[in-house]
Structures are given as C-alpha cells and as structure tokens.
Write a structure and sequence with these properties.
Heat Shock Protein 90; Beta-Lactamase; alpha+beta; 14 helices; 542 residues; 5-stranded antiparallel beta sheet; 3 domains
Length: 542
C-alpha cells in the first residue's frame, strides 16, 4: 500500500517517469515471486531426480559381489573402498558408505566417517526396506541419501547397509548460481519496461493533449467548481441521449433524480415535450420550455471533437418569476389600454353632448345621454349579475370599453355565470380572456356590424370560456397551429403570435385545454379545472 509521502513524490514526477518507477517496482516484485517459485520448484526437482539417482546406485551397489563377500567375511573389508570409488566416479555422487549390521562405518571415501556409527534415524532401512530422502551428515551438512540393505543371496539375511548420497546446496549457493540468469532476466525486463513506459506515456500524452496527471486533476477540479458554482442548469448528453454531466441546478429545474448520470433521458420521468427539446439535434438558442411547474429558457449546443459530434451541452435558466411578471404586465397593459379607450370614448361622448347643447338641441342631448347611460348600465348590469369576481368583472368592463371605441359590440352571453375566484385563478382567466378578446377584436375589425360574444360559465370544478366573433374566421392553413408561439393571423407581422400561445400555456399548466374552430367566424374555447389547482396548492403548502 502506498503512503501519502510516496504518492506526493510520484505526483511530482512526469508521467513517463511515474510509469517507469511503477513498472520497475512491478518487475522486481514479479521477479521476486518468480525466484521463490523457481527455488521451490528446483528443490522439488532436485530431490526427485537426485533421490532416484542415489537410490538406483545404492540398490545396484548393494548387490555387488565384492560388497557381499567382504561383509560376509570371504574377502577383506579393504576390498570395498576401491569398488565404492569406482561406483562414485561413474555415477557422480558425493559419497558411498558401507555400514555393518552394528551400524559402524566399514568403508567410506571420507576418512572422518570410518569407525563412527552411522545414524539411520531419518529412514527405516533397519526394517529391511530401502529408503531415500534428506538427512543430516555427522558433520552437520544436509544431503540427499539412499539407504539400502545388503542381503545374503543364500539365506536372504542382512549382511550390512549401503548409504549413497549427494550434498545438498544451500539457499545462498543456489541463489548465487542463479544470479547471472536473474540479472539477464532483470535487464531484459527493465529494458522492455522502459521502452513500454515511454511508448505508453507518449500515447497517453497525445490523447490528453500533453497534460500531466496533476494538470488533468486540476482541470477536473476546476470543471467541478465551475459546474456547481454557476446558477444556470448544465446538462451534458451523449449521442445515445444518456446524461454525462449534470449540476445541482439542472437537477432542481428538471426534477431529475440524484443518480441521473449514466441514464437515458427517457428513463428519468420527463415529459415527452421536455425530452424532445433536450434531444433536438438542431442548435437551439433561447428556446422557451414549459416543464409544468417552471418556465425555462433552453440553449442547446452540439459538442464536437476532432470534427466529430460526440454529444451536446444544454444550459437552462429559470424564468418562471419573469414569466409571471410578464403575465401580470400583460394584464396591466390590457387594463391600461381599456381605460385609455374608455377615457377616449367618454371624451367623444362629452364632445357630442357639448355640441348638441351649443346648437340648442337640448332634447336630443337628453335622449343621447339617456341612450348612452342605458346602454352602459345594461352592459355593467350584465357583467355584474353574471360575474361575481370583481377583478374578472373589471377586465370584462375594460374590454367592453375598448371594443366600443373600435366600433365593436362586446356581448356577455346569458349563460355566463361565475362566482368569486382565488387570485391565481382570476389571473389565469384574465390572461386567457384578455388574449381571446384581443384576437377577436382584430379578427372582426372591418366586418359589418362587428360583434364579440363572451361566455364564462362555471360548471362544477371547470370554468368554460368561449369567445365568438363574426369575423372571417381562422385560416385553415394555421388552424391547427394557431396556439403555437410565433403563429399569427397577421402573416407579415413577425413580432406577434405570442398571446394565444401564452393563453394555452397558462391553461395547460392548470390541467386545462384550449381549442378553436370556425362557425360563421372564429370560436375560441378554453376549459380550466379549478378544484385541481386548489388541491395542488394545498398539497404544496403541506
């Protein structure tokens, strides 16, 4: 296990030297293991081969006639050493010893063995069975010995014993003998490791643009700091639409799980509209994205490396509050326009009354005032009797004044009936009704006897809105796309086409829907659930 100081020391070295040091350590470790395995294997092979050799020689020498005759007394014991010397020289063993039945050495090439008692504690030759194995000599040296009994061919009785052996080399001797080979192996392995480390380091540097590991680590740290330090959501995708990087802001804005990295977008519970926007192969700039609870501005940029597209980076900005302010500003603008129109209308009527009085047509002026008052009171009465919510009623009255200024009659349908509403529900209805009526005012302008009929009806938990005009209707070419952003009945005006899209957006956020069809003019309808929104608010508060 590496220590922190060793890690710091390695970290200061270039990549090529780090690889060389690591490979050298690995080579030395491998060689150590190889040496240990080789030593164990060679010891096993030595014991097997040497044991077989000394056992075979001992069995052959035990049947030698000279040995048998000398031990039986037919020949002098001095006849054994020449025979033992011949056997030793032919076989290459280190010693051949002949022992009588009492265990005394009667013949040996080593004079120190003569007259001593040979120990057979390591074997079981005394029971008549041949034995081979490692045993210690009287002088303390380790040897591989074979013990074989010398039998009398006439009565099969034991005459003595033959001991044949070879000295065992020590560990130091074996390692010393293996040093040249080990140095060759180490040199070859070191040269190959050096060459491999240089080639590998050069390849890695080409792939990492010449950066050292510490430089790459610094870049990663900076990337993490930048990724999680900005307030915009950042989402990285590969070609298979898998999330490669994502910061905390993007997780919050899109409602992603914390383990989104490595998963496909289709598996993260996002709506199909959001998935389509995130995976659109085209380059997107400041695209408005509605996720249901938020209004986001999306920018999507393809990522290329070496001329090949490898994915895309998506940035997200939360514009929910700004969007809400825009909605409130639109309502305020509608109200201001209506008040301006109402002021202009009252001014024209006052000028008319003043002119009649100046001309002396008093009775005509009285009838004009009565007619204006009656019409205005009838409209106010229709609005007040059918719309209990004061904010919504004020909007309808203001739109009525705006329509009157443009020469269009705004009629509140007799089926209209709606009670008091919460502020957010009223704001939603104001956005929908305001944009529907404004679109109708433009549509029926220039039509004979232009008229707009407004119906607001509350049915159980749903509010139905219907705005009908007697204009030319919506062109069939844009009928299916009229609620999309940028689509307008004014084909030459590229700055329009957002009012109906906004009405659709706020309506669908509450689980409602919008529709349009033609029937002697355009008929725009919207259904907005009220109870569902109230329940959602209660759940959010809980």
């Amino acid at each position: 296990m590496s220590t922190p100081s060793a890690d710091r020391w390695l970290g200061r070295l270039p990549l090529a030297r780090q690889l060389l040091v690591l490979q050298t350590v690995i080579i030395v470790a491998v060689l150590g293991v190889v040496v240990a395995i080789t030593y164990v294997q060679s010891s096993t092979d030595y014991q097997r081969t040497t044991g077989n050799r000394v056992l075979g020689l001992a069995e052959v020498f035990a049947t030698d006639g000279i040995v048998r005759s000398a031990l039986r007394g037919d020949l002098p014991l001095s006849a054994i050493p020449p025979a033992a010397a011949r056997a030793q020289s032919v076989s290459g063993v280190d010693f051949v010893v002949v022992v009588d039945l009492d265990g005394d050495v009667v013949a040996s090439q080593d004079p120190s063995h003569l007259g001593t008692r040979w120990s057979f504690a390591s074997g079981d030759v005394l029971s008549g069975r041949a034995w081979v194995g490692a045993a210690t000599l009287p002088d303390g040296r380790l040897s591989m010995q074979a013990h074989v009994a010398v039998l009398d061919p006439e009565n099969r009785g034991r005459l003595g014993y033959v001991v044949v052996g070879s000295y065992s080399r020590s560990v130091a001797e074996r390692l010393t003998a293996a040093v040249p080979d080990l140095l060759i192996y180490l040199g070859v392995a070191f040269a190959l490791g050096l060459l491999g480390s240089v080639l590998l380091a050069n390849r890695i540097k080409r792939q990492t643009f010449g950066l050292e590991p510490r430089d790459i680590a610094g870049l990663v740290e900076h990337r993490e700091a930048l990724l999680y330090g900005i307030r915009e959501g950042v989402l990285g995708l590969d070609l298979d639409h898998r999330v490669t990087i994502v910061n905390a802001e993007a997780i919050e804005l899109l409602g992603l799980p914390g383990d989104a990295v490595g998963k496909r977008l289709e598996k993260l519970g996002l709506s199909q509209e959001v998935v389509d926007a995130l995976t659109d192969a085209r380059r997107s700039t400041d695209r408005i994205l509605d996720t249901g609870a938020r209004h986001l501005v999306l920018n999507r940029m393809p990522v290329t490396t070496r001329g090949r597209v490898i994915g895309a980076v998506v940035t997200l900005r939360d514009r929910t509050e700004l969007w809400g302010l825009r909605r409130e500003l639109d309502v305020t603008r509608h109200t201001a326009d209506a008040l301006r129109a109402q002021t202009h209308e009252f001014s024209n009527r006052l000028h008319t009354i003043a002119g009649l009085l100046r001309l002396g047509h008093v009775q005509r002026a009285q009838r004009y005032v009565t007619d204006v008052q009656t019409g205005h009171h009838q409209f106010l009465k229709a609005v007040a009797s059918r719309i209990d919510d004061t904010t919504l009623a004020a909007l309808v009255v203001a739109k009525g004044s705006l329509a009157s200024e443009r020469g269009v009659e705004l009629v509140v349908d007799d089926r209209s009936q709606v009670g008091a509403l919460s502020l957010d529900t009223a704001a939603t209805l104001e956005t929908v009704i305001g944009n529907f009526v404004d679109n109708a005012l433009e549509a029926c302008a220039g039509a004979p006897d232009p008229e707009i009929r407004l119906r607001i009806e509350e049915r159980d938990d749903i509010i139905l809105i219907e705005v009908r005009d007697n204009g030319p209707g919506v062109d069939d070419a844009i009928l299916s796309t009229i609620f999309e952003r940028g689509v307008s009945t004014k084909a030459t005006d590229r700055t329009r086409g957002f009012g109906l899209a906004l009405a659709k957006s706020v309506c669908e956020q509450r689980g409602g829907r919008v529709d349009v069809h033609n029937d002697h003019g355009a008929i725009f309808t919207a259904e907005i659930p009220v109870a569902q929104r109230a329940q959602r608010q209660v759940s959010a508060q809980d």
